[in-house]
Design goal:
four-stranded parallel beta sheet; Rossmann fold; single chain; alpha/beta; 52% helix; 420 residues; globular; 9% strand
Length: 420
């Protein structure tokens, strides 16, 4: 592990971990709650203990470092407010000898690669994905498990649709910035279309927010320097866009919450206040619509006769649970006329690219079987609703359900705007 020694002694490494993570390593008193709650039975407790003892190289060599799925369950569990996910990411950044091969670089650059593979190239890209042996090739060269299917690319991307669509309202309530994440742009434009139409029917003019990829994929793979470049570009762009109070509304929790939770620590100190200002305006779409409803300002009519008390089960994204509030999604589903139930389950098991990786496939499946998959299989015809694309793919891979994003379900339940 020679490259880790470039930072100097273990004391120097320890300072580097503290700097990159922004965490007080000694706040952890080894209660074990993070390990007990970890859906993958890994747990960061021992890694943190090595750091407390100044044994950074042991922490870098520990199996858990690259087994952590960054699902945030430990963050929500810690009674002292320690963020083990940030500690793991800091260690991954230092550990340049592991985890940064071709597969990590491919996943880290998923936005650019998806842009290339979609649009006019989508028919070719999707044909290649379906060729006999394509899964085995991905298994052999990228370490993606052979039973996993990669999401198809959209022929008409969401930005293309947005440029050419006719708004459903007059925008009398002003501008909102829809944070068009990678998956919305190039894989599931229907999520962005549903979100745009909901917001337009609620009286807003919808503009696209993204300057570059949010950087979440780079962060999860330890490419902090590249993620910082992306964060700076987005903060510079979005700060100017939100100075007059416009909200940044997102549909993919892992992407939107990166703006709120990660950017202030990724940018240079002189940009931190701008990043914090951007973060204050960044909200998930369920948070935004629920906020309007709570103020009596939600200009949407839900056709409850259409839903007619239908059942729905909602699986909350891990970062939504740790950094936001799934109750907002439940509130909206109930307003739309659904008899909604929140699935009592931890991480779905996919956790971004984690579940695709061949060495994590069984752990990914086992995590889903602990609560989510049985709930989905026993749904008795209920609509399966999610916020995260990872959750969606995980459910599709291991059950017969066809989950839909919350925005799609809500859009189908809206009859008209009350404000136009």
């Amino acid at each position: 592990m020679s490259s880790t020694l470039s930072f100097g002694t273990d004391n120097g490494l320890l300072e580097k971990v503290a700097e990159l993570s922004g965490q007080n390593l000694y706040a952890c008193y080894q209660c074990g709650k993070c390990t007990a709650d970890c859906p993958f039975s890994f747990g960061p407790q021992q890694v943190v203990r090595f750091l407390q003892l100044g044994q950074v190289e042991k922490a870098l060599a520990h199996d858990t470092l690259w087994q952590c799925a960054s699902c945030y369950t430990c963050v929500a569990a810690c009674p002292k407010g320690v963020d083990p996910v940030r500690i793991m990411r800091a260690l991954r950044t230092i550990d340049t000898d592991h985890g940064k091969g071709l597969r990590s670089r491919v996943f880290g650059k998923i936005d650019g690669l998806s842009k290339i593979g979609s649009g006019g190239m989508a028919p070719i890209s999707n044909t290649l994905l379906k060729l006999p042996g394509s899964n085995l090739a991905a298994h052999q060269f990228l370490g993606i498990h052979k039973n996993r299917s990669l999401p198809p690319f959209a022929r008409r991307t969401f930005p293309s649709w947005h440029r050419n669509h006719t708004p459903l309202g007059d925008g009398h309530r002003g501008k909102v910035l829809l944070f068009n994440d990678t998956f919305m742009d190039y894989n599931l434009p229907q999520v962005g279309i549903a979100a745009t139409e909901l917001l337009e029917m609620a009286g807003f003019r919808v503009e696209l927010a993204k300057k570059v990829c949010c950087g979440r994929a780079m962060i999860s793979k330890g490419f902090y320097d590249q993620a910082a470049v992306q964060a700076r570009a987005n903060v510079e762009h979005l700060y100017e866009q939100t100075r007059e109070g416009a909200f940044i509304v997102g549909c993919e929790p892992s992407c939107l919450l990166t703006l709120r939770d990660e950017y202030p620590d990724l940018v240079e100190p002189e940009m931190k206040e701008q990043a914090l200002a951007v973060g204050r305006q960044a909200v998930l779409i369920d948070e935004f619509l629920a906020m309007l409803s709570d103020k009596g300002e939600l200009e949407l009519d839900f056709d409850q006769a259409q839903t007619n008390g239908r059942s729905a089960i909602f699986h909350a994204h891990c970062q939504q649970k740790a950094l936001a509030d799934p109750a907002k999604s439940m509130q909206l589903l109930n307003m739309a006329g659904y008899q909604a139930e929140l699935v009592n389950a931890a991480c779905c098991g996919m956790a971004g690219s984690f579940g695709y990786e061949k060495e994590h496939y069984e752990a990914s499946r086992a995590a889903g079987e602990r609560g989510l998959f049985p709930a989905v299989r026993g749904r008795n015809g209920a609509e399966v609703v999610v916020m995260g694309i990872s959750c969606r793919h995980q459910i599709e891979d291991f059950t017969d359900a066809e989950p839909r994003h919350l925005t799609q379900v809500l859009r189908d339940a809206v009859t008209r705007s009350t404000g136009n």
